[in-house]
Design goal:
The chain is of the alpha+beta class. It is 31% helix and 29% strand.
Length: 402
């Protein structure tokens, strides 16, 4: 923006000197070209930000029942961290609003490429409307860094991305300015609507300056309102993330010591061969794009671009998860399966084994990792609780001391 202002100042300076210049036409052309180049640079910067955010911003699908196939609500979220796993997968950490994931029984995230992945609640903040989901994927997505909030000023350009209203408006990108800093919020004019909640608000560097949370509208007041959007400021978002991840001294998340996978995810790999799994994945992907009006040729090329290089990794994952289907009794479709137990951990000491399917924590039914986490994170180091597992189609109860 400073460059644009400099260019404008140069034009005003030129007009003041025009009367004593013989090369008026030449100089005016040069100055006009300078403005056009600067505007072009700004547009290119916006395009780059939008392109980068598009591979980091997801739709968050909230299901009010673990058995439901239709999401009850949707919001947005953005990846702020990833961890590379030993099996060539990535664990992603996605920040969103607490209200987006409250009261849900299971969650999925939906990418700009049309891929749907199961996600789990890492936790929610007590003090702020912030929550964190995690999910695992073979696809490499972008990670969006946080800005230093000390550098956020009134008048700064800002950009929002999210999915307002319906999934067909996936990752809508809007531009605005920072209108002001209002206590815990950034007030801005980058338009957002229902469904944008949890999506990123970024600066000209593509860094997160806030997580969008609400918009003042005619429905919430008795006066006409336009362009009053709010995002939770980035320094408070980071504070909430630290709270959730257990980095604050006041919060200690105990190590349970087991690796788990939702039974529903394992059943998703219950195909006789990897080729059968791969063909269905491909057909579903292509069908989605065709339903949006794209040609089969385009959809096929898009699938090859998005998934072709990851086929070997998917096959390895199929081999890993498909093998665990032998532990799932006929008719059991929910719960979370223990795939690994850390030696000398709380789970190991309690006698939990690979292949055990956790179906209850205390008296709370466990349908997936999300329902388990909601109960588990109530406990501190030194607390005890009971876990009921399905082991070879028999229910076994174990007591875990953290």
């Amino acid at each position: 923006m400073k460059k644009i202002l400099i260019g404008i100042i140069c034009i005003f300076s030129f007009f003041s000197l025009a009367a004593c210049s013989k090369n008026t036409t030449t100089k005016e052309t040069k100055e006009t070209e300078k403005i056009e180049i600067l505007e072009s640079d700004f547009e290119n910067q916006m395009n780059s930000i939008a392109e980068y955010l598009n591979r980091a911003t997801f739709v968050v699908l909230n299901y009010n029942s673990s058995e439901s196939e239709n999401a009850s609500s949707l919001g947005s979220g953005v990846i702020y961290k990833k961890v590379v796993n030993e099996n060539n997968t990535y664990t992603y950490y996605l920040v969103t609003n607490r209200h987006v994931i409250e009261d849900g029984e299971k969650f999925k995230v939906y990418s700009s490429e049309g891929a749907t992945t199961s996600a789990n609640v890492l936790g929610v903040s007590v003090n702020h409307d912030i929550g964190v989901l995690t999910f695992i994927s073979y696809v490499e997505y972008n990670v969006v860094p946080f800005a230093s909030f000390d550098n956020v000023k009134q008048g700064d350009y800002c950009f929002a991305m999210g999915t307002p209203l319906y999934i067909q408006y996936l990752n809508t990108f809007t531009k605005g300015n920072v209108s002001g800093i209002r206590n815990e919020y950034v007030q801005h004019t980058a338009d957002i609507n229902s469904g944008n909640s949890g999506g990123p608000l970024v600066n000209l560097n593509g860094e997160i300056i806030g997580i969008n949370v609400s918009k003042l509208s005619n429905n919430t007041t008795n006066v006409d309102i336009d362009g009053m959007c709010l995002a939770i400021r980035s320094d408070l978002v980071l504070e909430a993330i630290d709270e959730i991840e257990g980095k604050n001294d006041a919060v200690i998340n105990p190590l349970l010591g087991m690796t788990v996978t939702d039974v529903s995810d394992i059943l998703a790999y219950n195909y006789e061969t990897f080729d059968a799994f791969w063909n269905e994945l491909k057909n579903d992907f292509i069908s989605y794009y065709v339903s949006k009006g794209y040609s089969i040729e385009f959809a096929t090329a898009k699938f090859n671009e998005s998934y072709g290089s990851k086929k070997n990794d998917y096959e390895a994952n199929y081999n890993n998860l498909h093998a665990f289907n032998v532990y799932i009794p006929t008719g059991l479709t929910s719960g979370m399966m223990i795939r690994e137990v850390v030696s000398n951990s709380a789970s190991d000491k309690a006698g939990l084994k690979i292949g055990d399917i956790v179906v209850k924590i205390n008296d709370i039914e466990v349908t997936n990792q999300t329902t388990f986490s909601k109960e588990f994170y109530k406990y501190k180091v030194g607390d005890s609780f009971t876990i009921t597992v399905n082991r070879a189609n028999e229910l076994v109860q174990k007591t875990i001391t953290l």
